[in-house]
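One thing: can you check what follows?
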Amino acid sequence: MTTLKASLPHVNSDSGLDRVLLGIAAFVMFMMMALTFIDVLGRYLLRSPLPGAFEMIQFLMPFLIFTVLPVISKEDGHITVTVLDSFVPPHVQWAQKLIVQTGSVAAIALVGWCLWHQGQSLNEGRYVSGYLEWPIGPVAYGMSFLCFVTLMVQSTKLWRHLRSNG
């Protein structure tokens, strides 16, 4: 049977870390919604949009994405295509999962490392946003930290897979 898993899974928020991350994500989503609502209301009713609303949302968006990334990674909530799974022997499926897990660990480590260095460059150059003049470096550091959390999740999954029977 061919399946394409493209919806978010039911998130099992048993761990405290999951609850904290999902709580932060819910708060960030609420803030983005409230900023958009106030901005649109001000623009159309008062003819005065909320100053800097677009930039505030731009600052919140990466935190939303990178806060949910460890939870989605833990729950295997990424898009997967299982076209040939019924034809592939179990030991090949195990090896395939090993390759995917190893690649995921390497990719998130690289992204986190690059974001950390980007944060350093942004701080050294004293880069700020255009309208609100907020520093941009801390955003890159925050994304890098959340990549580190995702790296720990992915590394744990890789370790458990290596310990399973192949």
In short: The radius of gyration is 20 Å. Residues 1-9 have pLDDT under 50 and may be disordered.
